[in-house]
Amino acid sequence: MLARLALCSRSPSRIQRSNIFPVSIRAFVPSKFPRPHGKSLAHRSELKQAKRIVVKLGSAVVTRDECGLALGRLASIVEQVAMLQNQGREMMIVTSGAVAFGKQRLRHEILLSQSVRQALHSGQNQLKEMSVPVLEARACAAAGQSGLMALYETMFTQYSTCTAQILVTNLDFHDEQKRRNLNSTLHELLRMNIVPIINTNDAVVPPPVPNSDLQGVNVISIKDNDSLAARLAVEMKADLLIALSDVEGLYDRPPGTDDAKLIDIFYPGDQQSITYGTKSRVGIGGMEAKVKAALWALQGGTSVVIANGTHPKVTGHVITDIVEGKKVGTFFSEVKPAGPTVEQQTEMARHAGRALASLDPEQRGEIICSLADLLTEKKDEILSANKRDMELATTSGRLSQPLIDRLSLSSAKLNSLAIGLRQLAVSSRDSVGRVLRRTKVANNLELEQITVPIGVLLVIFESRPDCLPQVSALAIASGNALLLKGGKEASNTNRILHQLTQEALSSHGVTDAIQLVSTREEVEDLCRLDKLIDLIIPRGSSQLVRDIQRAAKGIPVLGHSEGICHIYVDNEASIDKAIDIVRDSKCDYPAACNAMETLLIHRDLLRTPIFDQIIDMLRTEHVKIHAGPRFASYLTFSPSEVKSLRTEYGDLECCIEVVDSMQDAVDHIHKYGSSHTDVIVTENEETAEQFLQQVDSACVFWNSSSRFADGYRFGLGAEVGISTARIHARGPVGLEGLLTTKWVLRGAGHTVADFSEQGSMKYLHENIPVPQKGFS
């Protein structure tokens, strides 16, 4: 076997040098990733189980051009490999780069040699223009191997990780004795927690020639590092092969061409749907070779992902992202899902959504009314499915009580939903295509601004299954396609509600306009579909909203991260109004985002009947009270002091704090609030108006419960959520928040040149009255 074993040395400060191999204690600890080898992993989410991983680094990844190494990329790759190794995984690297590194060294030596010779033969020490001869690849490989390995050793030493170099040729796999020797060497290295770095011995191998590269499970020609990595992965029973190249993954046609689409999951038998382009600018393989090698490895029981290892924004975490199951590159799987992929669902929804938008308003209204009827007609089936979800949620113990409360449906909730949908069906007529503005630009040149759907909406919601028909009805009314991703805790309820929604849509042939994502798609992966999704609307916990806002790449997010709502009881408040409003705001539905979380009390009310009665009422309702810093200072024995004044409890808990004035309350709200809903209770109209004008929240109320911050209660029929954003929609987002506009210009052969100084026409820009059609 043409193999050279080169063990790295550890830093003297970390391990004492000796004549034996430095073996990590972790090598003898039982594996944290037990998985019998045999079948490849079926889903991306299962890649977290991968214990033995081969990382193949293509020439385009290792080199920065045809001559020289990409040191920054290599450093980040080494860091990720070392991190995974230290987690208890067994990592192997198949690397290119020896030829490029050797070419760089040899060119430098040749140029230096030429310059010295010219200097010796020139009295004036004037150098002629020097040319570098074409360098033979095997010589470059021989000159580059040692330097490349030394670089890897230096980098891995920084993470106390030992490496070994192994050079192989075809004979090492096809000769049975050499193959056993190679296998034994690799297993021994892995047992000792050493990262093998493998490459073809390009100093002695013959030049690659066209042949039958992959002829079956037992035969593979090692003519490039793609085939080497595949053969090695199968030979070593690796769980995962990560092939890094200079493209995002596998495309259905050459990247950069029109309509080229990145393939998320590739299945055996899909080869006929692929059109391959030219090979990489460096190296001897190409995408076709990578696909053949990947399919060969897949057939041998190793999962494969082809991804980009050169992109500066992702190189630093591409390997760890793949192992964590994130949607990166192209995943090769033998298990084809029964239904469409999420990308296919989105395309189906967009196509059907355009048909939905082209329907008459009356037809869209009929679909919504049909859905409302189905909610009442199929009430028993819906509640039965919801009961199963509730039982599973209760027995699992994974959900908090507020989430369980949001999960629950009742006959009253379904009736309320049906009423709201019928209200929306009536009020939404003339919503799409409504003329907002009409201008006579010039004679026979008229401009209109009209409402149009946004496109494809992605709504991600936790627990609340009643969100599904609400959002679906709004999407239907606004002519938008809709992608729904609900929590698994409500899977049974969501499934039947979506079936009823599609049944209503089928009456006008637009069944696919609303899709329920039931695959294993992670929320973070959905947020990366910026070419398919136009707007994301999260509905759930503040943590869910924050996670989506961070994960969304190039897709706007409409929503609020927290519902920290305040009730300010002024010193001129009515005692009866104050008690009723505080009770309703906190106790009616504590898990709602519009429930009161902080009660602000004017200082003059302390130790007065109104204050005492509010406290008694909260105790009667079993509300746990947390004292703000100022409130606690007034009390000898205070309740537990609040940890943060920016807390959304979502339960029968609230904070009480003392303020000196209305202005002090406004300042407190601006500092600690979330711009959701804030209320003043007072009989002083002037004070109330100042509060209403100064508080910069989406909803500001006077003498009314914060629970009124709701699309249905506002008369919007339904809402997709409450937005605290400062552009587009704000507050409860109903139908109008799901529409955008486009400009329509009707002319008669007009050109801009007609309006130049030498032209014959003049701009008029006269506004034309637009008749209102009673849009609500």
* Biggest sheet statistics: 8 strands, mixed
Poorly predicted regions: 1-30, 209-220
Number of beta-strand segments: 26
Spatial extent as radius of gyration = 34 Å
In spatial order, strands of the major sheet run 3-4-2-1-7-9-10-8
Strand content: 15-25%
Ends: how far apart? 80 Å
Fraction of residues in H or I helices: 25-40%
Question: What would your notes on this structure say?
Answer:
- The chain is 36% helix and 17% strand.
- The protein has 23 helices and 26 strands.
- The strands form six sheets. The protein has an eight-stranded mixed sheet with strand order 3-4-2-1-7-9-10-8, sandwiched between helices.
- It is found in: Mitochondrion matrix.
- GO terms for molecular function: ATP binding; glutamate 5-kinase activity; glutamate-5-semialdehyde dehydrogenase activity.
